[in-house]
Amino acid sequence: MRLSQSLIPTLKETPAEAQIASHRLMLRAGLVRQMASGIYAWLPTGLRVLTKIANIVREEQNLSGAQELLMPTIQSADLWRESGRYDAYGKEMLRITDRHDRELLYGPTNEEMLTVIMRDAVKSYRDLPQMLYQIQWKFRDEVRPRFGVLRGREFLMKDAYSFDLDYEGAFLSYKKMMAAYLRTFQRIGVVAIPMRADTGQIGGDLSHEFHILAPTGESGVFYDAALESNDGRGTPDLDAFYAAHTTKYAATDEKHDLESWSKVPDERKREGRGIEVGQIFYFGQKYSQAMNFSVIGKDGSKIFPEMGSYGIGVSRLVGAIVEARHDEAGIIWPDAIAPFKAAILNLRQGDSATGAICDSLHDKLGPDCLYDDREERAGAKFAEADLMGHPWQIIVGPRGAATGQVELKRRATGERAELSVEDALAKVLG
Ligand code: ATP
Ligand code: MG
Residue 276 Cα, ligand 2 centroid: separation in angstroms? Predict the structure, then answer.
């Protein structure tokens, strides 16, 4: 993509409304714009990141055996009267009345809707277990939307739901989802630690939240440092993997237990703040019973499926990653989800030798690179590339161009090297 022809409205000034780094940087790098309190437009560069994250989430959900579906954002109030949550949910629910005076709402989550879909479609024990998910916008009328996309009112969530015949099945689904989450975060390039958590509005008795550590996080977290180095890629032995990630101490402030905490060796005790980027719940028959969803068992008996639900805040993740990965100059994107893998900086726009090298790099790298072809000072191009956080910068100036050399800069470490065009390409593509 040519920067001269792209909508990337970067800002030099720090926007006054932004209190934390990720919010400032997402506005300054031209990723999002606020359209109303807690409601954001995703501009092309921001959408590239959001889509890359969603695709990794989707691939890992599919690998875990979950099936993707898409439910509407607007739901009928009657659905929520069936579960008893219509009144319980309170002011966070955005309630809407249509022209026929029917009561609707913009879905904050989808347990009810999917339970009804399953109730209509699934009648026999042979049809279970099943795990379904969607990646869809949610609305929660937060009292205090803040920190940009970290606490918005409209936000993108991956929400999955499991239906099993018994507790063992449901616990297996829970463990599979935890493994899928850890692989997802590892692939995205962030450390997210599972913590024992409260079950809140969703209800139930087994739950973990996944937290990215950042000083501006809204939750207090307490954990065993041994968890920081756990590998999230998973092993064929699901039980061992689950145990490795859940038996060491890790809890949010709501679940913090001083007695268990005292058993963690002092040198491994870590206290800090975390941003919740996902949560998984097992809640048994809470919704299947309330909404009368049962299947016929092998022996003809009536079985109310055991359920769980599993969320990842896809849009919140964008902010959380920036919060965890930035410096004075700007964002430092992990390779897997950067809007562009590399930026090509032409330091002498109009010079035929630099132009030819840039054009050929641009061709070979394809749409995943951003070519800064503007008539701008070199300093401005450097600053903007650092702000936008491309993992690689390929700097093409007239001196090097004469001998076919370019400079390659790695954003995360600041390392620079003079290389031939071919070697630079190989590094970026490697
Ligand atoms: P929080 O405690 O931060 O309000 P929650 O526990 O109510 O979140 P869940 O019901 O667990 O949220 O939703 C699943 C995921 O959706 C959360 O882990 C979070 O990543 C994301 N999420 C929830 N609320 C918001 C929001 N207002 N803005 C952005 N993402 C959100
Ligand atoms: Mg939560």
Answer: 7
Q: Whose CA is nearest to atom 4 of ligand 1?
A: 151
Centre of ligand 1 to C-alpha 122, Å, is 30
Q: Residue whose CA is closest, atom 27 of ligand 1? A: 151
How many whole angstroms from 356 Cα to the centroid of ligand 2? 51
Per-residue model confidence as pLDDT tens for the chain (430 residues): 999 999 999 999 988 889 999 999 999 999 999 999 999 999 999 999 999 999 999 999 999 999 999 999 999 999 999 999 999 999 999 999 999 999 999 999 999 999 999 999 999 999 999 999 999 999 999 999 999 999 999 999 999 999 999 999 999 999 999 999 999 999 999 999 999 987 766 556 799 999 999 999 999 999 999 998 888 887 789 999 999 999 999 999 989 999 999 999 999 999 999 999 999 999 999 999 999 999 999 999 999 999 999 999 999 999 999 999 999 999 999 999 999 999 999 999 999 999 999 999 999 999 999 999 999 999 999 999 999 999 999 999 999 999 999 999 999 999 999 999 999 999 999 8
Angle at 141 between CA 307 and CA 19, to 5 degrees: 115
Which ligand places an atom closest to the C-alpha of 110? Answer: 1
Q: Which residue, judged by its Cα, is nearest atom 13 of ligand 1?
A: 311
